[in-house]
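Continuing from the previous page of notes. For each protein in this section, the sequence appears first, followed by its structure tokens. Read the first protein now.
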Amino acid sequence: QVQPVESGGGLVQAGGSLRLSCVASGDTFTNYAMGWFRRAPGKEREFVAATTKSGGSTKAADSVKGRFAISRDNAKGTVYLQMNSLKPEDTAVYYCAAVRTYSSSTSYTEARRYDYWGQGTQVTVSS
């Protein structure tokens, strides 16, 4: 099984950018589809972005489309979330998640599909 560990969060002004990283170690990284989720204060956890095992296909929530991009480097066992044009409403704890899958073409938007979660990294966007 993999253990995801996130990094890269912090405080940024509105309109700025951050790149989150998630290293997933402990198993063969290419066996896992990966996703990013977030939980804002007082809100439910929500889907942000997901990628297939190869990284050839991705999905993103409507709220972040055109601003956020998920990618992965299979050689480094790392998945990234590039966040541009950040807004105060993007403030949340961001979580990386992994699911072992035999499918090469499927990415998952539902949190219940994921088996392994990181501890989260705080992103705060000031206005």
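Done with the first. The second protein uses the same format. Note its length before scrolling.
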Amino acid sequence: QVQLVESGGGLVQAGDSLRLSCAASGRTFSSYSMGWFRQAPGKEREFVAAISWRGGSTYYTDSVKGRFTISRDNTKNTVYLQMNSLKPEDSAIYYCASPRTPYYTGPQRRVDEYTYWGQGTQVTVSS
């Protein structure tokens, strides 16, 4: 079965950086787009970033553009989220996700476009 395992979260100060990783297994990683979402306490899960199956296209929510970078290494079955200039409002549990359908082109920003989810990793940014 498909498994997604996130790592790299932690407690940092505003302005610091973190790199999240998501290791995938259970199917051909390179055939599927990947996404990162986050959920803060009392809020709905929201889209952060996505990357196409080949890695040639990336998409971001406006609040992280210029600060976060999504990338993937298909040789390691891993997707990354480099987060720079972190702000307290970035604090949340971060989840990676993957859709059911391979070779999908175009942005996938909705929670219901993804079938498989990791367990999440906590990111806390202090002011």
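What the second structure shows: The two ends are 40 Å apart (CA to CA). The mean pLDDT is 96. We return to this in next week's lecture.
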